[in-house]
C-alpha cells in the first residue's frame, strides 16, 4: 500500500467520523456506487484524476449519481474521490472499505464480523457453492439472489448487504479472501483486532481466555477470535493476525523437519 493510499484511507475515516449517525441505507448506496465506478473506466479515471479539485469531483458525482444516492453517501464518495490515491484500484478498495465501515457502524448490535467469518467457512466447505459465488461465468444479479436465499433471515441485514456487494464485484479476488477482509474491516471499525486461530481440536474457554490476554497485550487492543478446527494441524496452535502468522502447530514443525532432512 502506497503512502498516498494510507493518507487517503485516514482521510476517509475522518470523513466517516464527521458523518454523524450511520445508516445501513447509506452503506448500501455507497457500495452500489462503487460497483458502478468499478464497471465504468471513464468514470473511475475522472474520479481519481489528481488534477481535478474537490468541487469538480462533487459536480461529477452529482451528475452521475444525483437523485440515486443520499446526500450522506454522496458526501462520503466525494471525500474519497477528493483524496490522492496511489492507484485507481486503491481508490475502489478504499471506497468499498468505507461502505463496509458505514455498515458496521449502522449495525452495532449485530455480530457482523462473526457472521462473515461463519459464511466464509460455509463456502470453503462447499465447492459447488464456492464455484457458484466465485465463478467468473455467473452474472452479478444471480449471485446476489443466491446470497439472499442463503443469508436472508439468517444473518443481519448489514452482513447480507456486504456479501451481496462482494459477490457482484470481486475485482479478481477469491470469495474467501473477500469475506475475511470484510470481517477484519468490521472488527477494526469496532475497535477489535481479528485473530484467526486454527487448532486440531476446539480450545477450552480457559485456553481461549489465556490466548486472548496474551494477544491483546501484544496487539495493544481487544481481540476477537475466528476459530477454525482443522485436524490437519495435528496439535498446537496456528494464529494469524492480519499479515502476521504465529505457527506453533505440530504440522508446521513436522514440515520444517522434513525440509531439513531433505537438505
Your description of this structure?
The structure is a single chain. 64% of the residues lie in helices and 10% in strands. With 263 residues, it is α+β, with helices and mostly antiparallel strands. Strands 2-1-3-4 form a four-stranded mixed sheet, sandwiched between helices. It is globular and about 60 Å long. 35% of the residues are buried.
Please outline the major beta sheet: 4 strands, mixed
Strand numbers in spatial order across the main sheet = 2-1-3-4
What general form does the structure show? globular
Number of strands: 4
Rg: 20 Å
Binned, the helix content reads 55-70%
Note the gap between the termini. Answer: 36 Å
Detail the poorly predicted runs. none
H/E series: HHHHHHHHHHHEHEEEH
- Helical segment count: 13
**Average predicted local confidence, pLDDT:** 89
Given helix and strand content, the structural type is: alpha+beta
Strand content: 5-15%
Membrane topology: Peripheral membrane protein
Pfam families: OSCP
InterPro entries: ATPase_OSCP/d_CS (IPR020781), ATPase_OSCP/dsu (IPR000711)
Protein name: ATP synthase subunit delta
Amino acid at each position: 500500500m502506497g503512502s498516498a493510499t494510507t493518507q487517503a484511507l485516514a482521510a476517509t475515516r475522518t470523513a466517516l467520523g464527521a458523518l454523524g449517525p450511520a445508516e445501513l441505507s447509506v452503506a448500501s448506496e455507497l457500495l452500489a456506487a462503487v460497483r458502478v465506478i468499478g464497471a465504468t473506466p471513464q468514470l473511475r479515471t475522472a474520479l481519481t484524476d489528481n488534477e481535478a479539485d474537490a468541487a469538480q469531483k462533487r459536480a461529477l458525482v452529482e451528475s452521475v449519481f444525483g437523485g440515486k444516492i443520499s446526500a450522506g453517501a454522496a458526501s462520503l464518495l466525494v471525500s474519497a474521490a477528493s483524496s490522492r490515491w496511489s492507484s485507481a484500484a486503491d481508490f475502489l478498495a478504499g471506497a468499498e472499505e468505507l461502505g463496509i465501515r458505514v455498515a458496521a457502524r449502522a449495525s452495532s448490535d449485530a455480530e457482523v464480523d462473526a457472521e462473515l467469518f461463519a459464511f466464509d467457512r460455509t463456502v470453503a466447505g462447499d465447492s459447488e457453492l464456492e464455484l457458484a459465488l466465485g465463478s467468473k461465468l455467473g452474472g452479478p444479479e444471480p449471485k446476489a439472489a443466491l446470497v439472499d436465499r442463503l443469508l436472508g433471515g439468517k444473518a443481519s441485514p448489514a452482513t447480507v448487504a456486504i456479501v451481496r456487494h462482494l459477490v457482484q464485484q470481486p475485482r479478481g479476488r477469491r470469495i474467501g479472501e473477500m469475506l475475511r477482509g470484510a470481517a477484519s474491516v468490521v472488527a477494526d471499525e469496532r475497535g477489535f483486532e481479528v485473530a484467526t486461530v486454527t487448532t486440531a481440536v476446539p480450545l477450552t474457554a480457559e485456553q481461549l481466555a489465556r490466548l486472548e490476554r496474551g494477544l491483546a497485550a501484544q496487539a495493544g487492543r481487544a481481540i476477537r477470535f475466528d476459530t477454525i478446527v482443522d485436524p490437519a494441524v495435528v496439535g498446537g496452535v496456528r494464529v494469524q493476525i492480519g499479515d502476521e502468522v504465529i505457527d506453533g502447530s505440530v504440522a508446521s514443525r513436522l514440515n520444517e523437519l522434513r525440509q531439513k532432512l531433505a537438505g
